Amino acid sequence: MIETAKNLLSAIGLGTLLIVSAACTGSSDTSPSPASTPTPAQAADLAPTAAPVQATVPAAPAAQWAADGVITPGEYADSRTYGKYEIHWTNDAEHIYVAMRAETEGWVAVAFGADKRMNGADMIFGYVAEGAAAVSDEFSTGEFGPHQPDGELGGTADILIHGGVETDGFTTVEFKRALDTGDSRDAVLAPGANPILWAYGPGDSPTRKHSGKGYGDIELR
Ligand code: HEM
User: From atom 35 of ligand 1, which residue's Cα is the shortest distance away?
Assistant: First the structure.
């Protein structure tokens, strides 16, 4: 119930932002790049198969953004597909809105602030267990882990809203986070290219090693 209320408030707030942005720029073109159909992963560093949209105006999150585990047309400004993993995102001046989707019934994750290896990575795990979506804001202290929830490392859990769905062998988890959370265990995201690691695992526990992983970047406006 609280989550639903949060989503509603978020949607109202985002709608306002969209209107303000359109008024300031004279454009409200925030069309997303369509996600490509996932193909089998061949290597850890798969090249993305969907090119980012080249935007000429600052992005405003879609008014209909909702952490409901369903990626709808227009909900995100950009997306990339890495094998069996997709990431969709939009940002405004304060927040990033992300959808992670992979062909797994286990966890999906993105990590910010690390180039290729896991050391220092600000990881966000998401999974759906018995119909309920969960996220864990974690941090990796070594090149190949270990990683722990930020709260166990003196930081804080900073995912503001989340939700997700597991269906037909795919898991989709959506979340909202501040670009700068103020937590030293979180990367500060900024306009331009931000490196990411992506991964998905075979089970719901974030302690189970990934069955697919790699790296790339996301372009923020
Ligand atoms: C239970 C959680 C995790 C475990 C136990 C784990 C463990 C490992 C290990 C042992 C490797 C070395 C290569 C291999 O054996 O495949 C590795 C590589 C890697 N992991 Fe993880 N990992 C975990 C979670 C994650 C997450 C959440 C991400 C990103 C969001 C990630 C991204 C990567 C990447 C990109 C590599 C390749 C590094 C390179 O090419 O040098 N891992 N991981």
Answer: 214
> pTM of whole model > 0.85?
no
Class of domain 78-220: mainly beta
Q: How many CB atoms lie within 10 A of CB 94?
A: 11
Domain residue extents for the chain: 78-220
Ligand 1 centroid–CA 148 distance in Å is 14
Q: Ligand 1 site: residues with CB under 6 angstroms?
A: 44, 109-111, 116-118, 123, 144-145, 197-199, 206-210, 213-215
Q: Which residue has the higher pLDDT, 44 or 128?
A: 128
Site to substitute for ligand 1 among 143, 205, 213, 217, most atoms within 8 A of C-beta: 213
Q: How many Cα atoms within 13 Å fall on the side-chain side of residue 112?
A: 22
Three-state secondary-structure class, residue 190: coil
Tell me the H-state helices in 26-81. none
Task: Inform me whether the pLDDT recorded for 33 exceeds 90.
Answer: no
- Torsion-angle region of 10 (φ positive above 0: left; ψ -120 to 50: alpha; else: beta): alpha
